[in-house]
Amino acid sequence: MLKNCEKCNRVFAHPTRSMCEGCFEEELANFVAVKEYLKENPGASVAQVANETEVDVGIIYEYIRQGRLDIIPSDVKFHCEICGAEISSGRICPKCKGDLVKGFRSQPVSEPEPESKPRDRGSKVHYLDQIKDRR
C-alpha cells in the first residue's frame, strides 16, 4: 500500500510505518541520541538534552509522553489528563489508569441488537404481476 510520509510527504510503501525509510532512520537516530545522553547524564534538563543532541524540545517531550524513555529529564512535569495530578511521563496517572481498567472490566459485554427482520409474507413466491392483480 502506498502512503505519504507524515514527516516529509514523500510517497513510500510499508505495511505498518507512517514514515518513509529515511525519516524513520532519522527519527530512530534522534531517539537513540536522546536515550544515550540521558543514560550518561541522568540529571540533565530538557534544554540541555535538546542542546547537546540537537533534537527539538517538542520531540523530546513527545518521547516522554509516549513513555519511551527510561530516564526522564530532571525538569519534566506533566499533569494527568483526568485528575490533574503531577506525573513524570505518559498522559494518565497510575491511579486513574487503574480506575479505567477496573471500569472496563466491570462493564457488561452488550450483545449486538438483532437486525430488523423483513416482514414475513408467507412461504409463497410472489411475482410482481400477481401482486398487481390483487389490487
Care to describe what's here?
This protein is mainly alpha-helical and 135 residues long. It has helices at residues 21-40, 46-53, 57-66, 94-106, 128-134, and strands at 2-4, 11-13, 78-79, 86-87. The strands form 2 sheets. A two-stranded antiparallel sheet has the order 1-2. It has a two-stranded antiparallel ribbon with strand order 3-4. It is flat and about 80 Å long.
Let me know the number of strands.
Answer: 4
Assembly annotation: single chain
**Helix count, DSSP H or I runs of 4 or more residues:** 5
**How large is the radius of gyration?**
28 Å
User: What is the succession of H and E elements?
Assistant: EEHHHEEHH
Helical fraction: 40-55%
Name the structural class: mainly alpha
Q: What's the shape?
A: flat
How large is the share of residues in beta strands? 5-15%
Task: Extract low-pLDDT stretches.
Answer: none
End-to-end CA span? 56 Å
Strand order of the largest sheet: 1-2
| Rounded mean pLDDT score | 82
Main sheet overview: 2 strands, antiparallel
Concise synopsis of the structure shown:
The chain has 135 residues and is mainly alpha-helical. The chain is 43% helix and 7% strand. A two-stranded antiparallel ribbon has the order 1-2. The protein has a two-stranded antiparallel sheet with strand order 3-4.
